[in-house]
Amino acid sequence: MQKNILIIGATSAIAKATLRIYAEQNNNLYLVARNEEQLKIIAEDAKIRGANQVEMMACDLAELNTHQALIENVYACYPKLDIVLIAHGTLPNQQACQDDVEIALQEININALSTISLLTLLANRFESQKSGSIAVISSVAGDRGRQSNYVYGAAKGMVSTFLQGLRNRLNDSNVQVLDIKPGFVDTPMTAEFRKGALWAQPEQVAQNIIKAINSSRNTLYTPWFWWGIMFIIRNIPEFIFKKLKL
Fold first, then answer.
1. What does DSSP assign to residue 123?
2. Burial of 90 per CB tally in 10 Å (0-12, 13-18, 19+)
3. Residue 5: enclosing H or E segment and its boundaries?
4. Strand, coil or helix: 159
5. Contact call for residues 197 and 216 (beta carbons, < 8 A)
């Protein structure tokens, strides 16, 4: 059965890997991203892979006042959505955020407030239709603040807490709310990082996301071993943790 699927941040590596799978399943897609040229290429690729219908809209998601029109355009094409994947965001330079409050606030806006804005608009629609799945990519960084990326971590932690409340609210409406917490993923956003055994490929993460949506999961750590890593990190006593160089 074909599904209507909205993917926000469609040009990100994880989103692209995910939408390719959904395209091959002949689903209907609505793709949103900031770069229109890249979006056109991805949309055409999705059609070639077998998507039944592909719609798209270029939008700067940092501009919160554009979100209402975006959601209205989506629902004008697909009056009912089965799945939403929110996958946009940036990986800020922590030192730059420390040096300039404007940069810090910009990063919190795109990594937290824009997602919360979209979720608020979408949640009302899903609550009315009483079905569907809302999936959001946050990060393991949101589980505990660390000196190396606490601005990013704070933004993702805000999203995860919001998702917890949204999940509680929408449970009686038969709406799944999935918090996706990837660890290290080899993407253009992390190109400058040295890779190691803990790093995953976007295709692996995409497969895990689709499995988690299909099985109505609440939270997904991907790859799976990040659940154990973050369990340990969350439970280190603060008097020890604050001395660590993480």
1. H
2. middle
3. strand 4-8
4. helix
5. no
DSSP lists the bridge partners of residue 185 as 200
Q: Are 7 and 21 in contact (CB under 8 A)?
A: no
For the entire predicted model, the pTM comes to 0.95
Q: What is the mean pLDDT of each run of 10 residues along the chain (246 residues)?
A: 96 97 98 97 98 97 97 97 97 96 98 98 97 98 96 98 98 98 86 79 96 98 96 97 92
Q: CB–CB of 88/8 below 8 Å?
A: yes
User: Which residue in this structure is represented by tokens 């790093």?
Assistant: 199
Q: What is the per-residue DSSP string for 174-234?
A: T-EEEEEEE-SB-SGGGTTSPP-TT-B-HHHHHHHHHHHHHTT-SEEEESTTHHHHHHHHH
Q: How far is CA 32 from CA 59, 95, 159, 243, in A?
A: 7, 30, 19, 42
